[in-house]
Amino acid sequence: VSALLRKLSEATGVSGREDEVRAMLVEELRGTADSARVDAMGNLVAMRRGTGASKLRVLIAAHMDEVGLMVTQVEDSGMLRFARVGGIDERILPARPVTIGPNRVPGVIAIKPVHLAEKGETDRVAAPKDLVIDVGATTKAEAERLVARGDVAAFLSEYVEPLPGSAWRTVQGKAFDDRAGCALAVALLAERLPFDLVAAFTVQEEVGLRGARVAAYAECPDCAFVLECTGANEMPVKKDLSPSTRLGAGPAITVMDASFIADPRLVDLLSATASRLGIPHQFKQPNIGGTDAGAIQRARAGVPSVTLAVPCRYIHAPTGILNLDDFDHALALMRESLQRLPGVIERSAT
Amino acid sequence: VTDLIKRLVECSGPSGSEGAVRDLIRTELEASGLLKRKGCQASVDALGNLVVLRKGSGGGRRVMVAAHMDEIGVVVTHVDEKGFLRFSNIGGVRPLNLNGSRVRFADGTVGVIGLERLEEPAKLPGLERFYLDTGARDRDSVKVKVGDTACFFRPFEEVGGRFVSKAMDDRIGCVVLLQVLRELDASPHDVYAVFTVQEEVGLRGATTSGFGVDPEVALAVDVTGTGDTPECFPMAMHLGKGPAIKVRDGGMLAHVGVKDWLVRTAEGAGIPYQLEVLEGGTTDAKAIQTSRAGVPAGCVSVPTRYVHSPSEMVDPDDVKNAVRLLVAALSGPITIG
Prior knowledge:
The complex is a heterodimer.
Chain A: H1 2-10, H2 19-29, E1 35-38, E2 44-48, E3 57-63, E4 68-74, E5 80-85, E6 97-100, E7 105-109, E8 133-134, H3 140-146, E9 152-155, E10 170-173, H4 176-189, E11 196-202, H5 210-219, E12 223-232, E13 252-253, H6 264-277, E14 282-283, H7 293-296, E15 305-313, E16 320-323, H8 324-339
Parallel strand pairs in A: 3-11, 3-12, 12-15, 13-14
Antiparallel strand pairs in A: 1-2, 2-11, 4-5, 4-9, 6-7, 6-9, 7-8, 10-16, 13-15, 15-16
Helix pairs in contact in A: 1-4, 4-8, 6-8
Chain B: H1 2-10, H2 19-32, E1 41-44, E2 50-54, E3 62-68, E4 73-79, E5 85-90, E6 102-105, E7 110-115, E8 130-133, E9 149-152, E10 157-159, E11 162-165, H3 168-183, E12 190-196, H4 204-213, E13 217-224, E14 244-248, H5 256-269, E15 274-277, H6 284-289, E16 297-303, E17 312-314, H7 316-331
Parallel strand pairs in B: 3-12, 3-13, 13-16, 14-15
Antiparallel strand pairs in B: 1-2, 2-12, 4-5, 4-9, 6-7, 6-9, 7-8, 10-11, 11-17, 14-16
């Protein structure tokens, strides 16, 4: 799995420009998916036939896009103004290496050397509107040979595996949110299940669940599992408060977040399956964030939905840390839960 | 009816956990014999909305009338070492109403809401400063877990002839809808009475049931604020002066034809009414209005004081007249221009 996760993580796919990730997934699914299509918005929807024992229509979904930046203006100096695409903390931007556009033009988000900082300047965080990306060009014309207004920039970040002999199985890299979910979906499509399994690799989740909305409308499933990568925060705190999730404590089941309330039958299926098989799992702290489930649940006359996520530290930033044990447990839990799904959810009338 | 109101408002149904309310409504429907009528049926959809079809005599329209079963509440986010629980809101929970309140979980566990010591007592604390105390001695003796939901816990009271409860929003709408189903005698219309879920967290049940029912005309029955209490936000509605016919709220402009149809009905039948212009908040009608290719939609509201507090107050005359208005409106032809 680490090889696939590396490929997917190092691919770029800022919201609206998911092409590279999609092409990679199309290749991965050759041989497992019985059919695959790309819809009007760019979602990749693949289907794997089941044994036919159950007539359920089941959707799994993972988003291909990642947060990033978009070039809004090329300055006379050759520097690039930009806007954020998706939720990015402005504090992480300065001095960050990025790649711009499909040709991966390398750039750096500019910052003054500490020697030149004026009094008080180092105490403040620069607002994104005051920042620029520097590609090394010295004039507007030079820069425009390589980049154009509207190009997107992704963080440049190598996938890093633990050194041989490490006691831990954590990997570092960007865009595990939600390439980890994509990798889970790829693995699940290789399963032989009692029902036909549809996997939607969605676009534009980070800017408002836009791809999932139309994919779910088209597929009209009986229920949906959203495969995600969610934030873990274990930074030291004084108060006895909960981290959103913990790394290494198993996949996180969402009961409720800002976008939806999970179907209790699906929550019970996941937690009971995990308990029975001794798979570690946790419940994500309620009311934080949102996932494609928020859009899928409200498609047409409604879709019972749940989200299962691999925890990851430092999501929406250039380098996250993910535990491969959590990934493996998420896969095992989904596999077993899907086998047990018939009987939990009924085939809808339409 | 007072007995039905008492049972419905004392039931627990935070958004996403409306099962107990739905069961109670179903039992009432069965007891009323309505479901035995030809062409009438009740079903529960994918999100948990209870959809009751009362078949009309023919020649009428497909009308959806929605009232939501859910109420605001809290969800547990963390259990600490000592057994105290931290929580987040389900829907519009106001910190000002919390300290010393009690909540009840589905398993019967009661939690008392406590507040940390405040460095600046004059400043309104956020939800993160409050906690729940279920009487537990430590983490291991806590009976509820992260993700469990609870709602505010107060008995129903009759106060000076007015009704007070933690969940008038919108059990009183459910009561009105149940009464309409019982009292509606002859109607040409196929009336879909939909008891919706998850209104308080974003009109989610109405979004999907609006699509599923695919109505030609839609109404919500919900509560609205009043402007008749000391130093309150100025509003024209008064408790006891009749049900409110919605003109607009924070999320919807009511279809003018629907509003006029309700006004004509009220005037024709001599039913007191008020016109509602609400600046904040909205109802299920908003979601149904923009379902599919669009639905002419309006709302009949029960004026309510102290909405989203544990003591929401309504006037029984307004409830009675809301039922009369809807029964009259659904008994005749619907002309909405």
